[in-house]
Amino acid sequence: MSRKLSDFHRNAIIVLKNSGKSWQEIxxxxxxxxxxxxxKRGMQYVWKKYLETGSIVDKNRKGRPTAVSPRGQRTxxxxxxxxxxxxxxxxxxxxxxxxxxxxxHSTVQRILKRYGLRSxxxxxxxxxxxxxxxxxxxxxxxxSTWNIKKWGAVVFSDECVIQSLPSTxxxxxxxxxxxxxxxxxxxxxxxxxxxxxxxxxxSSNGVGILKRISGTMNAEQYQRNILxxxxxxxxxxxxxxxxxVFQHDLAPPHRAQGTQxxxxxxxxxxxxxxxxxxxxxxxxxxxSILKSKVKGMNYNSSDDLWKLFYNEWYQISxxxxxxxxxxMPKRLELVKxxxxxxxxx
Length: 345
Hints:
five-stranded mixed β-sheet, 3 domains, Nucleotidyltransferase, domain 5
């Protein structure tokens, strides 16, 4: 009972007891004056604690001691850090087999949480071999001297596929058992939703033209539909103050000889690009922003999806574009710091 008493009621018990009142009198006064029912044993517990310690505050309770020693906890941590993909159940089985103990999965999980080791979905990044990582570091070192003004003259471009994917998230709904097949309570899942393929570009001054691609982009289509007006697109994005630099990745249509000839004929400077490096292209962030915007919208066909995506594209503010271009020096520094491995971008 005393554990549920407030400090005020405990102090009242001590004051009343020091005044010479009996437990029955103290119990009656607490009940009438403070509307607090306290048992005699509870009051005696408070009084005894006061006589022994001079305080009315309970000691901090540590709870049940852990079944694993500090050394065993460090062993569990090392097992986890040695293989980050190892499930908790496997760690518990392996630890028990080595120590002849019976540690549960929940105990192992609590120990790992104390060390800050929680379970997360692994971030998906492109695979990079040693040669590709070295090229990324070399590229970062080469262009690390570029300032924001120089990066502002680069026209970044890329293709993107926007598709309505099946919903993998399970929605929970509160209903009765008789309402299982009620249409209003269904979770709609689109197995083969609308899909569009687009090409876009942007610079620090804002977004450029957005084009819809029919079918799969090949070298002929890239040269005919995209590179045909690349001079006008670049000059409009960068303005006449400085010559623009065109960026595209190492996709087969971009590396085709016909593509190289057209760019050379049009006297377009092309930014060298390391392979498998979407984290270095800030237009990927624009795609991510747009996908999140159209995700919650209603569209029944690919034409509807294109209209929505098209409208959202031209509503992107130049401020967003300047912010993405300004991140280029930091991206290069992270590439060098990560020794060519994928960065957070």
